[in-house]
Amino acid sequence: MSLSKNSVLIAAAVGLIGVTLLLTWQLSVEISEIKDRQDKVEAIYTESLYEDHMRLSSKLKVESELASLQAQLEDLLAVEENTDYLSITEVYTLYQDLAAKIARNNNVNLSTVDYEEEISSLGGLMLGKKFDEMKASMETISSGLEEDHEEYLAALPPPPSASPAGEGYSFVNVSTGRGTFGAYLIKVPLSSVRVVTAAASEGDCNDNCPVKSLAQHVNDNGGFAGINAGYFCPPDYSECSGKVNSSDYAFYKSSAGKWLNKGALSWGDTGLATFNGTSARFYKRSSDYGGGGVTAGVSNYPTLLDDGNIAIDEGILSSYQKDARGPRGAIGVGEANLYLAIVTNATVIDAGHVMQALGAKDALNLDGGGSSALYINGGYAVGPGRNLPNAIVLTR
Questions:
Q1: Domain assignment of residue 225, yes or no
Q2: Within this chain, do residues 237 and 110 fall inside the same structural domain, yes or no?
Q3: pLDDT of amino acid 320
């Protein structure tokens, strides 16, 4: 009996040891797995930190190159009798726009690494007085930065529903026969607002025209919302030399009570949107306008909608308007509502179909791309985009 008890005790002890060893082994495996996971997390975290470091290093390098270039340009500009003064002035203007675009792209975490080598070469070109090469290089870099920013705008996700926009604003996905498009939209009863067409210039302007941010246009006119207006010639386009920030289209300066570029009211290829207090009237062709009292007015091309129908004359569109996808601006009216919209990843033709699907009856195309901006209640829903010679502002 005693032997049997001892056998049981020994067996129990052996079993306990076995269980203990098994638990120890399992615990060891779990600890090992936890350590592996920690190592992986640490590696990912370290890699993420390193990527941030590299982005910051790249940004610092580019900004240092630009600061050095600016200092050299300012030194040269200080010597007005310099025989290359005019070329240096042109280069300096291009430099300022380039620096602004780099800062803008960096602010939204767009990498400028691809342009480092070209930016680094600018100083050498300037020292060698190769101003034409320098201008061509800056224009190429500027164009690339603009394309990067337009791709960024086109890929923006819908803003949260609690966006700073408030009443009248929404981001909507709009289904059309050409596909589904996102639209940053201000839709308000026309009877509840006044449209103001705001211009930075006091009169017609052909070159180096004054500009303001959309927020400035809105605030200077006592507004609560606004959108960029028609096409203009931005400083970053080489073909705009001699007509920087100018616009050829008829535009009514509400605060002065007069038309700018009044002769363009006779054009047949542009459309025209006019407002008189709380009423609106759109013309398929600016030349259809017979005069009469208005409190606001903007012309551009093409007309998107006429009495509910797509009215786009594709024959007058550029390939950029017909084929390139990006943010597109539009203004329209329908039933009792006013529509201001930035349509994402769209052609101008797509924008017309989106405005139709939203409920507009008449609509006019506005500028888009890098000039796209939509502002409401103290914040940008889209933008800020470029500084603008004119804008459409909503007041109460």
A1: yes
A2: no
A3: 85
pLDDT digit string (tens) for 49-70?
444 444 545 565 566 667 777 8
Q: How many domains does the chain have?
A: 2
Q: CB–CB of 274/252 below 8 Å?
A: yes
In this structure, the answer to whether residues 147 and 70 fall within a common structural domain is: yes
User: Looking at the domain assignment, is residue 186 inside a domain?
Assistant: yes
Per the omega criterion (within 30 degrees of 0), is the bond before 234 cis?
Answer: no
pLDDT of residue 6: 62
Q: Residue 338's closest CA among 198, 212, 192? A: 192
Lowest mean pLDDT of 16-20, 123-127, 175-179, name the range. Answer: 16-20
Helix axis angle, 116-127 to 2-77, nearest 10°: 30
Task: Let me know if residue 179 belongs to a domain.
Answer: yes
Measured between alpha carbons, how far is 3 from 63 in angstroms, rounded to an integer? Answer: 88
Last residue of a domain, one of 111, 131, 154: 154
Same domain, 143 and 85: yes
Write the single-letter amino acid at 234.
Answer: P
Res 92: pLDDT: 82
Query: Is residue 110 domain-shared with residue 148, that is, in the same domain?
Result: yes
The position carrying tokens 């407002």 is 275
Q: Which of 102, 121, 112 is nearest to 58 (CA)?
A: 112
Mean pLDDT, residues 347-364:
97
Instruction: For residue 321, tell me if it sits in a domain.
Output: yes
Q: Do 201 and 122 fall within a single domain?
A: no
H-run or E-run covering 154: helix 131-154
Q: Hey, what are 128's tokens?
A: 């060698």
Specify whether 99 is located in the same domain as 217.
no
Tokens 């008829």 belong to residue: 250
**Separation CA 99–CA 217 (nearest Å):** 23
pLDDT of residue 160: 46
Pull the structure tokens for residue 153: 């705008």
Give yes or no: residues 127 and 179 share one domain.
no
Question: Does residue 210 have a cis peptide bond before it, meaning omega lies within 30 degrees of 0?
Answer: no
Identify the pLDDT of residue 110.
79
State the Cα–Cα distance between residues 92 and 325, nearest whole angstrom. Answer: 31
Matching residue, tokens 């829903």? 381
Question: Which structural domain range is residue 142 located in?
Answer: 45-154
Closest residue by Cα to residue 320 from 345, 347, 344, 299: 347
* Shared-domain flag, residues 194 and 88: no
Provide the β-strand partners of residue 343.
183, 328
Altogether, the residues listed in the chain come to a count of 396
E strands, 323-382, in order: 326-334, 337-346, 362-368, 374-376, 379-382
